[in-house]
């Protein structure tokens, strides 16, 4: 299993990637970590008592160009529990690219429940193992609407660096 340290302007978050149950999602995340994609991106959407989302927007709310979308593997048995890392996506279940979110509480309604558009769920591929206090602190910041996006932190929360740690 691989670990990634997500260094932010609010502190470090260490996540354990589940390369066994979520090989597509974990490898996709590792690819973007290794190429430095996340460096300088924002945690751009924060909804208290739900989740914090990042990995695709630059300061000013400009979307960073990403690669191809990946197959949704939300049927892997991993659940959207507190501290889990999952891919954000559009209504298309197979549209995830770089954006991810960290669940602030158990969000079972996001879990896979069937292979129809509503039931596909959001694919979990990792778990916070250190730094959940940083994630909880993010949940407490003031948010606003900016450039058509809601729940945007008033003050930017940047991912300054991501570091892969192989076990």
From TrEMBL:
<dbReference type="GO" id="GO:0006457">
    <property type="term" value="P:protein folding"/>
</dbReference>
<dbReference type="InterPro" id="IPR020892">
    <property type="entry name" value="Cyclophilin-type_PPIase_CS"/>
</dbReference>
<dbReference type="InterPro" id="IPR029000">
    <property type="entry name" value="Cyclophilin-like_dom_sf"/>
</dbReference>
<comment type="similarity">
    <text>Belongs to the cyclophilin-type PPIase family.</text>
</comment>
<dbReference type="GO" id="GO:0003755">
    <property type="term" value="F:peptidyl-prolyl cis-trans isomerase activity"/>
</dbReference>
<dbReference type="InterPro" id="IPR024936">
    <property type="entry name" value="Cyclophilin-type_PPIase"/>
</dbReference>
<dbReference type="Pfam" id="PF00160">
    <property type="entry name" value="Pro_isomerase"/>
</dbReference>
<dbReference type="InterPro" id="IPR002130">
    <property type="entry name" value="Cyclophilin-type_PPIase_dom"/>
</dbReference>
<comment type="function">
    <text>PPIases accelerate the folding of proteins. It catalyzes the cis-trans isomerization of proline imidic peptide bonds in oligopeptides.</text>
</comment>
<feature type="domain" description="PPIase cyclophilin-type">
    <location>
        <begin position="1"/>
        <end position="164"/>
    </location>
</feature>
<keyword id="KW-0697">Rotamase</keyword>
<keyword id="KW-0413">Isomerase</keyword>
<dbReference type="InterPro" id="IPR044665">
    <property type="entry name" value="E_coli_cyclophilin_A-like"/>
</dbReference>
<protein>
    <recommendedName>
        <fullName>Peptidyl-prolyl cis-trans isomerase</fullName>
        <ecNumber>5.2.1.8</ecNumber>
    </recommendedName>
</protein>
């Amino acid at each position: 299993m691989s670990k990634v340290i997500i260094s932010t302007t609010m502190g470090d978050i260490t996540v354990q990637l589940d390369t066994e149950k979520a090989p597509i999602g974990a490898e996709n995340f590792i690819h973007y970590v290794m190429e430095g994609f996340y460096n300088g991106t924002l945690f751009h959407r924060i909804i208290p008592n739900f989740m914090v989302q990042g990995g695709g927007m630059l300061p000013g709310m400009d979307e960073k160009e990403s690669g191809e979308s990946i197959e949704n593997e939300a049927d892997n048995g991993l659940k959207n529990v507190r501290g889990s890392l999952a891919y954000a996506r559009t209504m298309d279940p197979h549209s995830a690219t770089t954006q991810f979110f960290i669940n602030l509480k158990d969000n079972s309604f996001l879990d896979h429940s069937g292979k129809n558009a509503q039931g596909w769920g959001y694919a979990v591929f990792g778990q916070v193992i250190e730094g959940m206090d940083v994630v909880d602190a993010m949940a407490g910041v003031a948010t606003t609407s900016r450039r058509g996006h809601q729940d945007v932190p008033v003050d930017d929360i940047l991912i300054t660096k991501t570091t892969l740690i192989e076990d």
